[in-house]
Task: inverse folding
């Protein structure tokens, strides 16, 4: 089983490259946001509990997120592997994910980090906002999201470097060029 964390700032191309990984390697995609929305929509016990936090404007506790991810991961046992997108965001989440996977006799094989400078990210997100009409793709919100990303993820980068899993990939150039760099990383696993 090939388990990858796709890592990068908003606008770095995680969604696009996840689609390429799914197509090329037959991986399943686990997006924390999608999973939470789905659990809530289906009215599962975990979803009902998560909804109580979300309705109050609170973050869903790590333990609950891990339980939900474990349930989704278990439903994908026949998959060739999974891409974790949007998780982990903190060191305690990374440690909990590692433990959850170890309980299932598997692990994270690589953290593929799409590296793009902030100026390029802002330009991409502003353009995406013009095309998609997403209200959160405005300059003030983008700058805030990037600030939060950098402050939250800096410790994770060091954590995954220490674990020997961190693989930085230059996230600029054509989509195909970026994916070629990702394939080189996967070829070394």
Result:
């Amino acid at each position: 089983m090939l388990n990858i964390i796709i890592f990068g700032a908003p606008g770095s191309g995680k969604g696009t490259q996840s689609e390429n990984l799914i197509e090329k390697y037959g991986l399943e995609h686990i997006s924390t946001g999608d999973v939470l929305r789905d659990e809530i929509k289906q009215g599962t016990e975990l979803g009902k509990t998560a909804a109580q936090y979300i309705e109050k404007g609170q973050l869903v506790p790590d333990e609950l997120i891990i339980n939900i991810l474990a349930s989704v991961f278990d439903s994908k046992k026949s998959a060739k592997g999974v891409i974790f997108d949007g998780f982990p965001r903190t060191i305690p989440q990374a440690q909990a994910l590692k433990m959850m996977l170890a309980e299932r006799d598997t692990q994270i094989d690589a953290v593929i980090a799409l590296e793009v400078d902030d100026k390029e990210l802002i330009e991409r997100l502003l353009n995406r906002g013009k095309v998609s009409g997403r209200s959160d793709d405005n300059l003030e919100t983008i700058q805030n999201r990037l600030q939060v990303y950098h402050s939250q993820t800096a410790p994770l980068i060091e954590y995954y470097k220490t674990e020997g899993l961190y693989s930085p990939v230059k996230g600029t150039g054509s989509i195909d060029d970026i994916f070629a760099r990702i394939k080189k990383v996967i070829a070394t696993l």
About this structure: The chain has one domain: 2-187.
